[in-house]
Amino acid sequence: MSLTPTANPKVSGTKLFNQRRKDACRQVAACKRSLAAVKEDLGRLEGELAKDRALVAAFNPDDVDLLGCVDGNEYLESWVFAGKPDVEMIRNGKVSNVFDVDACHCRNGMLYRMFGKDANHASVPVLAVWPIHNESTHSWEKFFRIVRS
């Protein structure tokens, strides 16, 4: 739309100006509502951040129960099982190079396992790992490091 009056003699320049002013006022009001919503969100997030900072400040590492673990000692992180006949089948190329990898939640942790297929398409257990960690990106990375080695 142009700011110049139209050729219609019924529409004056003042009327167009007033219409444009009303449109601009509506846009400003909408921006003010948006800004108020942003300020409200910011206030809520700052409150949550203050709570998080208070929790971090209140954390005492000495309150963590280490179940009797002592610095300097060695502890079991996981157990790994790969049967000798299965490993030999892999080394001799008797197992397909496509593997089935899965993890399942068990009563006392996670069980990661890997199966291959032999020439008869029967499942061959290749590797089983029982880590003390919960399932996470870190535990999967550790499992695949074991697989590669």
Short description:
The chain has 3 helices and 4 strands, in the order H-E-H-E-E-E-H. It is α+β, with helices and mostly antiparallel strands.
Secondary structure layout:
Layout: H1 13-58, E1 78-81, H2 84-91, E2 100-106, E3 109-117, E4 123-131, H3 137-148
Antiparallel strand pairs: 1-4, 2-3, 3-4
3D structure, described in words:
The protein has 149 residues and is α+β, with helices and mostly antiparallel strands. The chain folds into two domains: 1-64; 78-148, no CATH class. The protein contains three helices and four strands. It has a four-stranded antiparallel beta sheet with strand order 1-4-3-2. It is elongated, with a radius of gyration of 34 Å. The mean pLDDT is 80.
